[in-house]
Amino acid sequence: MAKVIMIQGTMSNAGKSLIAAGLCRIFRQDGYRVAPFKSQNMALNSFATKEGLEMGRAQVVQAEAAGIEPLVCMNPILLKPTDDEGSQVIVSGRSIGNMKARDYFAYKTQLIPVIKESFAKLCEIADIIVIEGAGSPAEINLKENDIVNMGLAEMVDAPVLLVGDIDRGGVFAQLLGTLMLLEPDEKARVAGIIINKFRGDTSLLDSGIQMLEDRGGVPVAGVVPYMNIKIEDEDSLSERLTSQQRGEIDIAVIKVPKISNFTDMDVFEQFPQVSVRYVSEVSDIGSPDMIILPGSKSTIADLRWMRKEGFEEAIRACIEKGTPVFGICGGYQMLGCEISDPAGVEGGGLIRGLGLLPVDTELTDDKLTEQFTGTCAGATGVLADLAGLEIEGYEIHMGMTHANNSEFTEFTSSGTGICEDNIYGTYIHGFFDRGEVAETVVRSLAARKGIDYAGGDPSDHRDFREKEFDRLADSLRSSLDMEYIYSILREASGSAE
What we know:
Largest sheet: 7 strands, mixed
Helix content: 25-40%
Mean pLDDT: 93
Number of domains: 2
CATH superfamily of the largest domain: P-loop containing nucleotide triphosphate hydrolases
Number of strands: 25
Low-confidence stretches: none
CATH topology of the largest domain: Rossmann fold
Strand content: 25-35%
Strand order of the largest sheet: 15-13-16-18-25-24-23
Radius of gyration: 23 Å
Structural class: alpha/beta
CATH architecture of the largest domain: 3-Layer(aba) Sandwich
């Protein structure tokens, strides 16, 4: 039976995902077969496995850190918010429909057999399973029938490391308050505390650490520094989404309310001349060198929002100046002439698109989730040098997009995208991830602007992440008491009976 250890946090974005990824890499470096697990994930960033099954990207990243192929059993339940009250529920990689929060809360215990079965599959292939919780284990309104924090820890008999974020302030209240709100048997599972995202001299925390251990009755397993690690974040709390710093080459991403798979743009962090800004107010769009319309979980609603906020006019003004516009998935659908929803996938209705590409989209109940290997079949305008390059990625969308006339250039092969002049649309997530593709985009934008291309790291984004995983592991090794963490593992049973 695999050994298990669980990472829980005092709140969302405390750093659970990154610490779990780092431990996956450390255990792998030490010669163990490692697998990540998160029973229930709520996120709009998702991935299609080789089998065409959908899972959260956080566990994909952790699987990469562990050096294994992402498997849907690593994230058996994925919730993709559709509005403020409900989500699309994906079980074992397939959508079972949309549910309101109250309905899902009543339903979720029926998924316990799925969770146990998924965990058991990982036990067959791994020596160590690193489990990630969600949010906080002390949410009073969510503790009943919990399947993702302490409820899961009990289900699989996992010891817990509790993570608090000191950078956002109040970490001692976070940690002690969480411990106080846990039931005695739950608190007994907390084997260690991690203070995360610390800036400065750790000796200044000595008295605080002593107080934590005295009052909390749980040892502090380490103080992790604030790490500038370029590994994708799990959700919309990502600091990437707030930066407005502009580089020599400025890429503006329209931050629609239901933005999904914003990790598509992370590859550009490899290039020192490039900035990626996520723009939610039209006054901030400025004069970018490229505009990206990203994926969206609610394409029609997000298109209405863009129109209401004045982005349609702003984008057209940029196009008139020669600015390329790139749409991915939902963004591709928005670039077309019309989006219809006869099946009521997003509430029904018909909406005029931006009219920048000669395509129409009909949303359907059938969800396409599959990996893609092909080419940039042809390219026009500023990004013409992309033509012929190999593309690897994946599709996740509900709906089909078809050209409404014969005057177009196939952009990505197999009918996955078209382009016209400086407007590009594709269904392929991960389009930019191959180093040659990203470098060609940056080089082309630099040439259009008349500036020298200083170069960057033209390696594939996966190779770049490999180096970042090693950096992350080095940082955690130097800041965590790994001998103590291994002692926790030796005592863990990891049973899903």
